[in-house]
Each structure stands twice: as structure tokens, then as C-alpha cells.
Amino acid sequence: ARIEAIGHCLFLNAKMSVSGIMEDSDDAGWDDLPEDDEMETWNHDIDDIEAQIPRTGKDAPYTIMAPADMQKKERERISDVAEILGISPSESAILLRSFQWNQSELIERYVEGPGPLRIELGVDCDSEPASNSSRIIECPQCYEDVDSSASFHLQCGHQSCERCWTDYLTECVDQGSASVLARCNYYRCKLIVPDEVFERFLDDHHIQRRRKFLIRSYIEGSKSLAWCPGAGCEFAAEYTQGGPLEIHCQCGTRFCFKCHEISHRPAPCEWATKWRVKGNSEAENATWILANTKACLKCNVQIEKNQGCNHMICRNCKHEFCWLCKGAWKDHGSATGGYYKCNLYEEAQAKGQVTEEEKVADKAKNELQKYLHYFQRFDNHDKAIKYAKKTLKECDDKMRELQDIKGGGFNDVQFLINAVKTVIECRRLLKWTYCFGYYLETGIEKYLFERLQQDLEKYTEHLHELSEKPIEDLINDVMRSEINNYTRVTERFREQMMNGIETGLTDEAG
Ligand SMILES: [Zn+2]
Ligand SMILES: [Zn+2]
Ligand SMILES: [Zn+2]
Ligand SMILES: [Zn+2]
Ligand SMILES: [Zn+2]
Ligand SMILES: [Zn+2]
User: Fold this and answer.
1) ipTM
2) Residue 413, CA atoms < 13 Å, CB-side half-sphere
């Protein structure tokens, strides 16, 4: 809470200074951008905050786990709990999996009364073990007589032949993740099959397969772990504090630890989820149909209006009608206003005779227009990000060319790639501000938010333009430092704006 408070009030100050810098320099031209030391005052404070909220690198509050680390960690957790409770690792594994890896809750419940819990979770059986001391037994699964040395049973004493055990456990694994907590193969027996029994009866392929399910249950069950949603990525993140945080995976994906989706800062998870669902939902289609089609009076088929003209011909029954008043087209003509106007409709409207269908359509139309307004901007930034990523290679070539012309180190031409990267970062943020803005209620916060959004749009477009300057312009040292400065100021503004939105732009919210 302390960090948020600092971030919040600092943001407002910084916001004013950035706006000041940006606006002044608009008039004065970019040669007048502040030098490093002028910006020092607030840069320092920002650096302090950034140091407190590390998001990447070794100081980040989370770790990225490769598949090999996961198994190691899973084993460690299991043996830790085994040691604490004084039980075997395979018992500890069953208990942890049943408790969705909630270690503290498990320990608490276990200490309260291990006996009933062990029975409830299938570590122990609730009755005396079935005993059979004869040398030859009839396997209850396949009804073959087998030597008792070729049969096997768990603690419950339910014997069956080894072949049947192999078949049963293999089948369990083939069926999928239920094999994580599979029960004894005897009808109604609740005892859970321990890991070592699987290892004993399964072939290597099935052992590996089950391990994958075990790891999955470990990652998905643990509140402090999350898979990276990046395509084909097998890494997971561990964040013991839990809650919302942007994770930077080694595969380059950024994702939200809370909802496990691709990062959606600054929009909260709830809005981002709603927005995604909306983007491909049936409801949206329905709204579109309501806003853009009308039912034919004769046959009731929905007709889409796709041109400006009001003369509609039903493609089903060929009924001709007017889009506006829905009257038969034969009553229309130059007297009613021609093809693009309908006096009958205007008269009816003037008398307040608006049909229910029209009211619904109007409402749908407004809602749809609002959504499209935000969605188009969201989508444009998304496309621009993809495009900009493709141009990174060209940018690299340009930098080398520039270095050849100007001499100096590769560091001297880094400003160009930094500019492009900043443009990408800004668009990433801008993209999700349209989801945020769509759901944000009208008020002072929205007013402040939209001003910042507009500013960032402006800076981003300008930086984008600068970054695409032809090489002849880039040779100029003034241009070079202009791009450098503009990149830095824009980047600071972006960072501050993002943190500001997340912590609240008004005092009530912050
Ligand atoms: Zn059998
Ligand atoms: Zn059993
Ligand atoms: Zn990843
Ligand atoms: Zn989220
Ligand atoms: Zn019709
Ligand atoms: Zn009409």
C-alpha cells in the first residue's frame, strides 16, 4: 500500500511535468528538449519506485521454471511435507495432490486429526485388510488362477494378478489426468494407488506420460504457480505472493499472473476477460444483427441493409418495402422523398410513433457503435504492434548502415532500436487502454484517463514518425539527440501512465 501511495502522488506530479515538457516543446521545436540534468529531479524518484517494484531480472519477485525445475520443485515440496508430518513421500504426495498443493491447510488439518483425514483421502483403508493366505488365488478381474507370488495388492489386501494391475494402471494413464489420484482396482475400494506402484507396473512410455499429468496437477493446483500462455511455451512462473503481476517469461511472452492470460495492463483481469469474450461472442453478433437488419413484414426473414438506399427487396419472398417506415415500397416514390429519404417515416417520428423494434434497434446501434469505436482502436494498435515487430529487422539493417556512414560504436546507433521498442511498448499499453476506457464509467477519472490516453497517442505517433526517418536525416546529430530524448520522455510517460491508471488517477481510487 505504501508503494502505491508514493506511485500515485508522484505520478500526478510527473504527469504535469511531462505534459509541460511535451506541450512547451511542441511550440518551441524539439531542439529544446530538456537535458538530462533538468529531468533529474523526477527521474530519481521514478527510479526509486522502479527499484521497489522489480518486474524482470534476478530481483523480480517471481521465478521462471523450466520443465526440469518443475519436477525437482514438486519432489522437494513432497519431501518437505513428508518430513514435517513424519510420513512417507508417497503418502505426502497423495495428500498434497488432494489438497491442491495447499501445504499450510493440509498441515493444519493433518495435525487436527490424521486418522480420519488419511481414510477420507485414501491413504489408509477404512476396514480391516482383506486377507487371503492361500498359495493359489483366483484373480477377481480376469478369473484366472494365479500363484499368489504373481499377484499384488495394496494395503487394503485386494489381490489381483500382476497382468491385471498392469492393464488397469495403463488404462488409467491412457484416460488422462485422473491417473494422478487413481484408486485401487477393486470395486468401491477408495484407497489411492501410490506413485511407486505405477512405477512398478507401467512401461516407460506410460510412466513419462503420467509424470506430465503430475507436473500439470502441481502447476495448475498451486496458487503460487502459473503456466506461461505463450504458444508452445513449456515454462511456468512461480510467484509466492500471488495476485496480479505481469510476468516476463523467457520465451518473450508477458502474461498476467492472476488470470494467466497474455498481459493486459492497465485493464483489470475482469475487464480484460469480458473484453475478450465480447470480441468473439454470439451476443455481439446478435447486437450487430439488431442494429443492421430488419425483419421482412411478409415472411419475417432478417434483411440486412448494405447500401444507403431505403428500397429493400426481401431475398426470400421478394416483398419490396421501405427500410425506414417498413411500409410497402409501392406507396413510396418522389412524393415521399425518393430513395434516400422517407417523409412517411419522418411524420411518424414527429408524432412519436416509434415502434418497439426501432427502439431496440436504436439502442443496439448505439451500443454497437460505442463498442466498435473502442474495438477498432484496440485492433489498430494490435496490428501496428505486429507490423512494428516485423520492422525490427529492417531497423537493425538501418543501424548498421548508419554506423558504416558515421563510424563509432554500435551503441551510438542504439537510439533507433530503442525508439522502435518504445513505440511497441506504448502501443501495447494503448491497445489495452481501449478495453479500460470502454468499461470505465464516465466521471473525473475517465476524463483524466482520456487526456493521458490522447497524450500518449500523440507522443507515440510522433515517435513512430521519427523512428521511420530516412537514413539521410538520421546522420544529423540534432535529429539523433531529438529521437533519443523523445524516446526517453515518452517511455517515462508510458511507465508513469500505466502505474497511475493501475493505482487510480483520482484520490478516491488511489
Ligand atoms: Zn487378473
Ligand atoms: Zn483395495
Ligand atoms: Zn513462455
Ligand atoms: Zn489478468
Ligand atoms: Zn420476405
Ligand atoms: Zn418509408
Assistant:
1) 0.68
2) 19
